[in-house]
Amino acid sequence: MDINSNSGFPPQSYSTAFNLRNEIKQYLMSKGLSKLKNGVLKVNSSSNKGAASKDSWRSGCCVTGKRQCRKQHEDSSLLKFLALNALELSAPASDALLRSQQMQGSNQAWFQLSGHPDAFAPAGPGTIWKKCSGGDEKAVYEALAGEPELRGITPAYLRHVNYGSQSFIELQDLLFGFRDPHVMDVKLGTRTFLESEVENTVARHDLYLKMVGVDPDAPTEEEHNSQAVTKMRYMQFREQQSSTCSLGFRIEAMKFRGSPPVTDLKRVKSDEEVIDTMSLFLGGRGDVRQRLLARLAEIKNVLDQSVYFKKHEVVGSSILILYDDTKVGAWLIDFAKTREVPEDITLNHRVQWEPGNHEEGFLFGLDNLIKVLGKVPSKSSPPNVTPTKPLALKS
């Protein structure tokens, strides 16, 4: 584990929380509420039976009065809550655990903005577990740690974890330290699929159905007659529905303070729609825009000089943008489709992709993201045109 000492991560509370977790485990086992099975803490099923009915505790009330019985019930509920939290700190949280945390009125509610469902889970103070699926993201993070400058623009990597039959990597939780932030996931690149994913040239009927489901006029006459399209054709069609092809980035999802994530943004395509969506996200905060522009310029400068970046295609990765009342942050995330290119190839990440050249337009997208963000109006500079809501947010 190689972590930048200047990053302030992991938090000092990490080791304290680890010790507290073990103390909770010992206490729960001594009370008979949990047991260790294969090294993992399990809540005894008998301790959950009483939760089947919210009034089930009343049947065991003693003659000393309801107040004492209620106190016993509250103590039991506290123990069960501790058990859930002990589990949450030692294993990927299920939906039930996440709901339990939210029901307890936590001020640090945890959420997943985008990506595959159940791919992430809170691990401890300031860390998350990410499920490993395909590729070798662990190796990517270890390689990124070899360039100190790259460590400053990506989540800190802590360790690889095997839990049950699944594999996870433990990463810095970028939301840690922010208070109910505004969050945006921007996927970079003009190509968000690997070349290996489109090598099969067999036309498929299921992909044709997906295409006409989006746009009945999209298939050519030949494709209509055969009612089939290739994977390459479908993937390129799909990316033409957003700003991916034209700008080299698309707004994948975003979250406003106190609101659930907005994920239906893949049809935000034109420059005007992208600017309006960015403007809506920033809410006229000119100070946030300026600090974000400075951060993106820093990321761009690091990538332009990175040796690792010149020899790897970075497909499907995103920039995660966060801000609250006092903090602004942006980091590169998601390296599941990062691949080393052949030795005789050096990438600049701005050249148009052709099969075999491994260019993915990553820096082309970052260049345009900076340009578009610079056009977003703030309260100090009123817009030249009346802004409209982006397509996905129109009523």
Automatic annotation (TrEMBL):
One of its GO terms (molecular function) is inositol hexakisphosphate kinase activity. GO terms for cellular component: cytoplasm; nucleus. InterPro entries: IPK (IPR005522), IPK_sf (IPR038286). Keywords: Kinase, Transferase. GO terms for biological process: inositol phosphate biosynthetic process; phosphatidylinositol phosphate biosynthetic process. Gene3D superfamilies: Inositol polyphosphate kinase (3.30.470.160). It comes from the Eukaryota. Its EC number is 2.7.-.-. It is an enzyme of class 2 (transferase). It holds the Pfam family IPK. The keyword Transferase applies. Belongs to the inositol phosphokinase (IPK) family. This is Kinase.
